[in-house]
Amino acid sequence: GEYEQPVVGMKSCLEYSDADADDCEWSAREWFVVRKAEIHLSEDDVLVPFLKLGVEAREQVLGPHGLDDAPLTRYDHPLVRYAEDFSRNFDLIAERKSVVSQLREVAKASVVAKFLLESGVQLDDPWFSLGSPSSLGCCLEVPQLWNDRCFSQILAKDGEIASSEKAREAKVHGVYGGVDFGIDRFRLAAPSRIATS
Prior knowledge:
Blueprint: H1 13-19, E1 26-41, E2 47-63, E3 66-69, H2 78-88, H3 90-96, H4 98-118, E4 145-151, E5 156-157, E6 160-161, H5 165-168, E7 171-179, E8 192-193
Parallel strand pairs: 1-7, 1-8
Antiparallel strand pairs: 1-2, 2-3, 4-7, 5-6
């Protein structure tokens, strides 16, 4: 959330942080989540995944093994405010940013795959050989986004630096993120019919 935003008037989390009266250090993470997932069945018996994606944020605190999610994140935290804006504008952002649109399509494919598993659908062998075998290596690393922003204030008085020790200390805002669809929370074994008009 530090670059030009895809929706006019939408602030980045760093702009929210700059406007925040409490300029203390913070670290937080945001991630893409599925908020609603269903499988619909069209009139001609086609499975249609339906989902709502959003962004959630949680402040992080230093624990014994590194950064842990705080039990409670204040509602006016800069990253929470950014996550709410992003979620509210998700469909518009997906139209403007292909990577967000592609993420939504991966989520839909995951919902369909979960439905097929939960409902016990038996697929014939040709379904498993539709594509050509890949010779690419497998990457087992989980991608993660992070951005640390360090800043401090320097006060000048009569042409000389007149900062107090506290003002010279650099402050850090850390933003971390990724994807956690959380599809395991949804029961998808029974599709619902799509209403027709």
